[in-house]
Specification:
Layout (H helix, E strand, L loop, with lengths): L8 E2 L6 E3 L4 H11 L8 E4 L2 E4 L14
C-alpha cells in the first residue's frame, strides 16, 4: 500500500462518496492480492455451491498499491 495516501473524497459530513470510491469487493480483492492470494481462485463450498470471498465482483484497486 502507498504510505500516507488518502484515496477518494467524501462530502462535508463524510457520509457520501464524492470521487474515487472503492466497493467493498474491490477492497477485499486488493487486500487478498497484497497477501499473495488470487481472489478469483479462492473459493469455498457452501450448500453445494462454490462461493468466492469477493462474490462475482471485485477487482484489485491498482491505484492504491505502491
Amino acid at each position: 500500500m502507498k504510505r500516507g495516501y488518502s484515496h477518494g473524497q467524501s462530502d462535508d459530513y463524510g457520509f457520501n462518496v464524492v470521487e474515487g470510491g472503492v466497493h467493498i469487493h474491490d477492497l477485499q480483492a486488493t487486500i487478498l492480492n497484497l497477501l499473495g492470494i488470487d481472489h478469483k481462485k479462492l473459493t469455498f463450498l457452501f450448500q453445494g455451491r462454490q462461493f468466492r470471498l469477493t462474490d462475482v465482483a471485485g477487482e484489485v484497486a491498482k491505484e492504491v498499491i505502491a
